[in-house]
Amino acid sequence: MLLEVENLSVTIGQISPLEGVGFSLDRGEILGLVGESGSGKSLTALAVTGLLPLIDGRVTAGHVRFAGRDLAALPPCALRALRGKRIGLVTQNPMTAMDPVQRIGAQVDVMSRLHLGLSAAAARARTLELLTRLRIPEAAAVCDAYPHQLSGGMKQRIVIAMALAAEPELIVADEPTTALDVTVQAQIIQLLGEEVKRRGLGLLLITHDMGVVAQVCDRVAVLYAGRIAELGPVGGIFARPAHPYTRALIDCIPREGTAPGSLTGIPGAVPSVTTYPLGCRFHPRCPRARPICSATVPPLLNGHACHNPLEGADG
Ligand code: SF4
What we know:
single chain; binds iron/sulfur cluster; 33% helix; alpha/beta; four-stranded antiparallel β-sheet; 10 strands; 10 helices
C-alpha cells in the first residue's frame, strides 16, 4: 500500500480538530477527500505531507505510513527529502508554489535537476514534454514567461508540472482548482487524473466538491467535523450513499436542467472545533437524527458512521 492513514488524531494547542481518521491509497488510485470548510481536509493533507509543525500541530494518536514507513518516526531531514521527490504537493493557490520573479521554465527545470539529477538541457527537454502533455500551447514561449503573464488555469497547470517533474509516487492536491472557473476546473482535474493514471501514481485529491469527486476519483472519504462519515468506492457511494451528510453533499451538485436558485445547500454550518457536539457531530443538521445520535458516537462500520443510515445503502 502506498499510503496508509490509520486512526489519525491531530492536536493543535488545546484543540483536537482531527479524530480517528483512517483511509488508504494504492498506486494508480485516486482517492477524494471531501467535506465542507472546517471538516479537517487540509489538516489531513498537512499530516500526510509531514507539515503539521508549520501550524504547531502534532499527531497524538495513529499513524501515517508512506510506502510502509511511519512519517512520525522520520527525522525532519528525511521528511524534507520525501516531500517534493516522492510526495508531490499541488496547492490551491499556485502563487504559493511559484516564485513571481523567476521564469516558468527555470521553476519547472529545477525540480528534475534537484530530484532526478538531470543536466540543464535534459531538464529543459523534460519540462517542455511535461508542459506539452498538460496541453499548454507554445510550451517554449511559456518557459520564457513569468507567472504574472499567465492565466490562473495556466499557472495551475505549471504547478502540476512542477509536482510531476520529480516523478513522485504520491501527489497530494489540496483544492487544486477551487479558484478557477468551472470549465477550466473540469479540464485541469481531467488532465491531472489522466497523468496520475498514466504514470501509476497515487493521488489524494482534497475538495469540497462532490462533482470533482465524481469526475475522476476511484474512492471517496467523506469528512465531517474531523471524523470520517463515509468511505468507499465512488460508484457505490454515489448510487447508494448511506450517510445523510454524503447524501446532502451529492444533492449540492448542480446538474443539467437544475433551475437557477433551486439548489438549497445544507442548512447550518460545520461546528467549530471548540463547540463540537457530543455523539454524532452532524446531529444538529441531520434530518434523520434520533435520540441516540446526540449521545453516542456512531462507529465506522460497513463504510459509514451513522446510527440511522439511509435505506438501500450497502451494509
Ligand atoms: Fe444523522 Fe444520526 Fe446518522 Fe448522525 S448518526 S448522520 S445524526 S442519523
